[in-house]
Amino acid sequence: MPEKQYRALTKRTVDRLSVRDRDMVFWDRDIPGFGVRVYPSGAKVYVIQTRASGKSHRVTIGRHGEVSPDQARRDAVEAISALKSGRPVSKEEAVEPTVADLAERYLREYVAVFTKKTTGGHYRHVLGKNILPVLGKLKVSAVEKDDILSFQYGLRDTPTTANRALDILKKMFGLAELWEMIPSGGNPCRSVRRYRRDAEPERFLTSEELASLGRTLDIAPAEGIAKFHATAAIRLLVLTGCRRNEILELRWED
């Protein structure tokens, strides 16, 4: 079991706390049972843990940034005192995960397990550069379709990036359904359409390139590079401008 970590939980200290692979509680040096749980995503939650009436009690005080360390400390002292005297303590509403929390779990439990290292690096880049700066602080359960559409519109000048980000968000919120962070069918990305990619600019072969292609097609069947029917189809594509399937489906009667 890892050794407990103790700190003087001032705002400056809590702001600087971070962990890499798994969440950890840093306990206050002055108030036994009062601490702050730090997550790899950067989220920090004040908690208490104490024994009273022969049982262990854990209570969430609030999220760092929404509750100051001083206020959390006062609430902790009051809650511990109440528990020790046998009075019930009403837990605050459970701290809901944010999109940043979801992203951290997505990277740890899905990307790191099911994708290649290079793919995972790309996902981390898109999350860090595009998604989390805009959506990271929103609670997962509060994200709606309009939030996704607004985010997508912000990337309208880079449709490829917008599509990649949307694909990541769709998967993340699909997993959020699986992990019961949102209700089944509650994926806000479900009906959001991807942008059409910008069409590639047209380019025509130069006279020199056409001549080189013709020479290659002349010798290809004899040298076993391509069959005669394939080279004939390529010539028709070049000369007619038809689509590939139109050429491949041609019949003699046409």
Question: What does this 3D model show about the protein?
Answer:
The protein is 46% helix and 12% strand. It is α+β, with helices and mostly antiparallel strands. The protein has helices at 11-16, 69-84, 99-114, 117-135, 145-154, 159-178, 207-219, 228-240, 244-248, and strands at residues 5-7, 24-28, 34-38, 44-52, 55-63. The chain folds into three domains: 6-85, Integrase, DNA-binding domain (Double Stranded RNA Binding Domain, 2-Layer Sandwich), CATH 3.30.160; 99-179, Orthogonal Bundle (DNA polymerase, domain 1), CATH 1.10.150; 207-249, no CATH class. It has nine helices and five strands, in the order βαββββαααααααα. Helix 5 (145-154) packs antiparallel against helix 6 (159-178). Strands 1-2-3-4-5 form a five-stranded mixed beta sheet, covered by helices on one side.
SSE topology sketch:
Elements: E1 5-7, H1 11-16, E2 24-28, E3 34-38, E4 44-52, E5 55-63, H2 69-84, H3 99-114, H4 117-135, H5 145-154, H6 159-178, H7 207-219, H8 228-240, H9 244-248
Parallel strand pairs: 1-2
Antiparallel strand pairs: 2-3, 3-4, 4-5
Helix pairs in contact: 3-4, 4-6, 5-6
Major sheet strand order: 1-2-3-4-5
Unreliably modeled segments = none
Could you tell me the mean pLDDT?
A: 86
Estimated radius of gyration: 30 Å
Report the CATH topology name of the largest domain: DNA polymerase, domain 1
Question: What structural class do you assign from the helix and strand content?
Answer: alpha+beta
Task: Report, as a whole number of angstroms, the end-to-end distance.
Answer: 79 Å
Q: Which of globular, elongated, flat, extended, rod-shaped describes the shape? A: elongated
CATH class of the largest domain: Mainly Alpha
User: What level of helicity do the residues show?
Assistant: 40-55%
What is the string of helix and strand elements? EHEEEEHHHHHHHH
Number of strands: 5
Question: Per CATH, which architecture of the largest domain?
Answer: Orthogonal Bundle
**Helix tally?**
9
Largest sheet: 5 strands, mixed
CATH superfamily of the largest domain: Tyrosine recombinase, N-terminal domain
Number of structurally distinct domains: 3
The share of residues in extended strands comes to 5-15%
